[in-house]
Structure formats: structure tokens, C-alpha cells
Amino acid sequence: MECVRAVQNLEDEEVGLVPTQTGPFRTSQNNLSEGVSVSSNPPTEPPDNFSNTKQQSSKMSKDYKTKLQQLKCASDDSDPVKRSNTTKRPDEKFTSASTSTASFGDCPAPSSSYKYGIRKGKQPSIVWQHFERNDASSATCKHCEGGDATNRITMVLLFLLCVAKLPLSFVENAAFKLFMKVVAPLYTLPSRKTITTKMQTRYEMLKQAFKQVLAEVGSYTLTCDNWTDVSNKSYLGVTIHWLSSNLKMRSGSLGVIPLSSNHTIPYLLENLLKVIEDFGLDLNKISAVVSDSAANIKGAVKELIGSLRQLACFAHIISHLIPKTLASFDQLKEIISKVKHIVALTRHSTVATDELLRLQQRDGKVPLKFIMDVPTRWNYTLTMIRRFLELEEYVYPVMMKCKNTPNMLTREEILILNDLVRLMEPVENAIGIISGSTYATATLVIPLIREMFNSIARASPGTKLGKEFQTALTQRLDEAVGKYEFHEVLGKATVLDPRFKKIPFTKPLAAANHLESIDKMLKESLKENDGDKREKSTEEEVPKDVLGIWDLHDELVKRQVPEEEEGGYHSELRQFLKLPVISRHDHPFEYWEKLKPAYPTLYSIAIKWLSIITTSVPSERLFSKAGKIKDDDRSRLTGENLNKLLFLGSLTREE
To answer: Please, are residues 617 and 437 in contact by the beta-carbon 8 Å criterion?
Structure first.
């Protein structure tokens, strides 16, 4: 009611009549400025017979409004300058062209010049920025509960809490309340309970929209992994990845499911089926499920979709190569232990740290610090050694500032560390490239394996220990991924990638097997392309060259000779193989979109296999987000609300 009364008062103000303290009515300044003659001013005091009764007051209000309108018309008509500069309204009537005043009866009716009490062509009051008109006599405040502005602010606030991983109790923070009071004084912040309810409502609504999107997708890949939070409660995380209609790789969170029993194969399978059923996924559309190499999760996935579509995380497999190889060299472990001791001593000593920074500033360099190793992450060992070698010239003078000087490295040990860096970097680069989720990764596995073998062989270590480490690393790499060329999913994806085709294969039999399998799928396919036209997009690029890891592939492309006629294959497959490979930096999805009219059946097969991802890194990233949400300060957050917050946080602003 207060909002409605405010609007009614506003309408009176727009026509020049509002209550005042000295009298019931006054003349609007806008009317005076528009030419109302002083001699024609309406009385500013109520007449003698004015009564305080409601009926008399209403009648007087109407009389004064009519009188003001008449005086306004008369004033405008009596001013020749104003009449010459003013466009006549169609409903204006004059008794004579030479008359200077118009009779009151000739004035237009207020309804023809006024809408909702506001003169046509006149700028509304700024008060209308806070109201939305319902009809001629009522309006709704935008800042009251249910108003448009309030709803928008609340939804953006909820988006902020989910994306920024803030606690829901943040709405009760005193500093945030002060901030919102300054930014939006008329907005009332919801309580913690209210924002929790809105979060749950929003989750159900967006979940249904997400399910509709997935229902229209032709194929998708799932990743899954286990995680334990700060309160020692375990979860099963599941993510989904697919190629959208605009040729971009999309991903989403299907859930972080609390686990309350032993992680046996049947129990994990039961939870996977619950997630699939909850989001209405089709098992036949699942191209692959990626997990780590743990026996229980691998067994559950095999029970779910079979062994052919179960993929072990490629990043996990090759990340174990370096630690296992280092474990067999006691001398290397001793050298790395010396580096750790020096780094730890420097980081724990303020004097040593200040001296390190001072020496670098003296030489005009950007000050750097030593990086400490993390036992659970082998790549931090490489990072620590790399930074140590970068600051090698400052190690001795910095150690002189310490009371207990550690054992320093010899020149031979420094050379061994340089050999280790050159041998470990190809593995690190391969993990970085394969861990992406916004571009095709299934097609990169076999090419990267060959490139790792080539890069390790070209490292050319100069020390005896370095050569021994090179031989051991090559052997372990071959044991871990040497047979990947025969992998059905990875092999098909590589052959159908126009950037690679048969080039990365070192075993001709493996490539031939994949071609026969693709040819069989072509001949047995009864599907027809839907003919939907996909829009062109700018896909996120695969990381550029890192220390020449792609040198071998680029050289093989240059030496490639035209393919001979492939006998017995389907015509689409034969013609595709005869086409030259495209640049490694081109986008395979966009290229296949151009080939779609000529190869409609092969196009459907290629899009399905190329859009598969081959690591469970997205699940690890999901757990990293979960760890930031459920920390020591929020250890009582329920698994249900954690799951909802992660789902909402995984959506884009447009979604």
C-alpha cells in the first residue's frame, strides 16, 4: 500500500497538484516555467467555504485540476512567441487565427494530453526508476520482495556465492551488509536460511534444464574418482564431457556423492548407476568412462559399460613413471636429498632468504625464491631442481649466511641434475597437454607416446648416471604404454583425426586393425545424418610447442608421400585417407564440419570418437573446488549441499 500511495502522490506531482503544509494544493514549478501568467495564478489559499470533509476535499481537488488545465491553455495561447515555437496538437481548437486567448471550453480534455497523470512528451520523475506501473492507478516497487530488481540481485548474489566458493553465511557478514547498504540501499539481504532455500530451488530448476541439454547430445564421456574431505568423509565425484552444437567441448558436474560404506565394486557400481539415472543418461551414448587405475573403480566401470569403453587415466599412468624410475637409483635420491636440504634451510632462514633476494636485485634480475618439493607430486621435484639450477650461482654465498652450512653439491652432481631435467621434462609436457578438457585429447595419446620416446632419446645426457636413468625411463615407458597403439578407442580416434591419421603409428598392424574396424562400422551403419548445420566456432587451442616435443611429428608430415589406393575400404574412408593431413594447430572438429557434406556417415563416427577425453583430471579439479568449499571452517557442510554448490558453480553465467 505504501508503494501505491507513493505512486498516486507522484501522479499528482506530475500534473502540478500535491499536498503542502501551508495548504492543500500548490502550483507546480514546471507549469510556472512553461508560461503560466502571473495574473492568472490560481489561488494559493483554500476558499472560505473549504471543508475538511473527504467529499468536499475530493471535489476541490478535481476543480483545481480542471482550473489549472484551463489556465495553462489560456496562458499558452496568449503568448505569441510560445505559440510560434510550439507545434500544435491535433486536438487544439481556436476560435480565430488572430485571437490571443482561448476560451476555457476550447481547451483539450486532459485525457488526450495526459497518460496516467503524466504530460505526453514530458520526462518522468526519477522516482519511476524504482517502480513498475501495473495500470493507471497502481504500481509495484522493484525493490520490495518479489520485485524484478530484488530477484536479479538475489540471483547474482547466489551466483557469487557458488562461483567464488563463499559460505552461505556470508550474507550475514557485517561488512558485506554495509557494502550492500551503500550499493543498494533499498535491497533487503536474505538471511542464511533464505539463501539456502533459494539455492536448493535454483539447483532443481537448473538441473532440469541441464538434463534437457544432455538429452539432445549424441554421445558423451564420463570421468569418476574418489575423494576424502577434511572431516575424513569419502565421496565419489562424476563429471561429464561432450561436444556442443557449436563445436566446443563442454563439461559439467554430475555430482559429488557421499559414500557411507566400503568402496567395493558393487557399492561403487550402485552409486554410478544412481548418478546416471538421476540425470537421465543413456548408457548407449556413453563413449567411454575414465578413472584412475585403482582396482575397485576400474571393476565398477567395467561392470557398467564393459572393458572396451573403460579408459585408465593416461595422466595418472605416465605420472608414475618418474617416481618409480627414481626409486631404483640411490645415488640420484641422495643428490635430490641434498637439494631439498639446501632449499629447506634457505626457506626457514630469514637471513638467507634476504641475502638471496639482495644478490638478485644487485644483478638487476627479478627476485626469485627456492621452491620446496611436495612428496605426493613428482612434478614438484622437477620444479624444485629446475629453480635450484636457475639460482645455482647464488647458492654458495647464501649458504655462508647460515650457521650450519649443509653439504654442497659437486660439479658432477650439478651436471647430473641438468641431465635429469632434460629427461623428465618430456613427461611433464605430455601430462600438461593431455590434461585439457576443452579440446580433443583421445587423439593425442598415441602421438604423444611416440613424441615422448623421441624426446627422451634426443636428450643426450652427458653423465654416466644420466644415461642409465635414460635407459631405465625408456624401458618403464614402454612397459606402461607400449601397447597403446592397439587400444581400440585411442586407435580409432587417432586414425580419424585429420591432423594425424596413420602417421603416429610405429606398428603398421595396429593402424590396419583400426582401419578395418572403422570400415566395418561404416558398412554396418544404418544411421542417417540429422543434417543440422553447426555454427563455426573458435575452439580453445591445444598448448603450443613445449621444448620441441612435436618435432618428430612435424618432420614425418613433411616426409609423407601420397597414400596408395586403399583396397576394400568404404569409399568415404578411402577418400578421407587420400586427403593430406592438416596442420597440427588446426581444429579437427571444424575440419570435419567442412567434410560433412562429402562424408556424412564417416562424419558421425569421427565426431563421436574425437570428442572423448582420456584423463580423470576433471574429477581432480572438481575435488579441488570441493576442498575450497568444505574446509576447516565449513566442516559441517552436508554432502547434499556440497553437491548442489559444486553443480551450480560449474555452470556458466549464461546457463
So the answer is: yes
Q: What rounded mean pLDDT belongs to the chain?
A: 79
Find cell 594447430 and name the residue. Answer: 585
Strands 234-243, 220-228: pairing is antiparallel
The model's pLDDT over 125-134, given as tens digits with 9 standing for 90+, comes to 766 666 777 6
All three cell numbers of 125: 520523475
C-beta neighbour count of 443 within 10 angstroms:
28
Judging by beta carbons within 10 Å of its beta carbon (0-12, 13-18, 19+), is residue 612 exposed, middle or buried?
buried
Q: How do 114-115 and 118-119 pair as beta strands?
A: antiparallel
Cell of 66: 480542471
Amino acid at 26: R
Is-contact 434 317, C-beta < 8 A? no
pLDDT at 106 over 70: no
Mean pLDDT of 491-499: 94
The pTM for the full model equals: 0.70
Q: What spatial distance separates the first Cα and last Cα of the chain, rounded to whole Å?
A: 36
Contact assessment for residue 370 and residue 358, using Cβ atoms and an 8 Å cutoff: no
Strand order in the sheet with 234-243: 249-259, 234-243, 220-228, 286-291, 310-312
Q: Which of 378, 311, 375 is nearest to 617 (CA)?
A: 311
* Joined grid coordinates for residue 94: 481556436
Write the DSSP string, 338-383: HHHHHHHHHHH-HHHHHHHHHHHHHTTPPP------BTTBHHHHHH
Contact 589, 247 (CB under 8 A): yes
SS3 268: helix
> Whole-angstrom Cα distance, residue 538 to residue 370?
39
Enter the C-alpha cell of residue 82. Answer: 510560445
- Dihedral (CA of 610, 614, 617, 623) sign: positive
- Strands (E) in 204-285, as ranges, are 220-228, 234-243, 249-259
Task: Residue 549: name the closest of 654, 644, 424, 429 by CA.
Answer: 429
CA distance 539 to 248: 6
> Could you tell me whether strands 220-228 and 286-291 are parallel, antiparallel, or unpaired per DSSP bridges?
parallel
Assess whether pLDDT exceeds 50 at residue 97: no
Residue type, 362: R
Of 488, 518, 490, 519, nearest to 504 (Cα)? 490
The Cα–Cα gap between 641 and 250 comes to 24
Cell numbers 650461482: residue: 393
User: Cα(634)–Cα(614) distance, rounded to whole angstroms?
Assistant: 33
**Residue 301 parent element (H or E):** helix 295-305
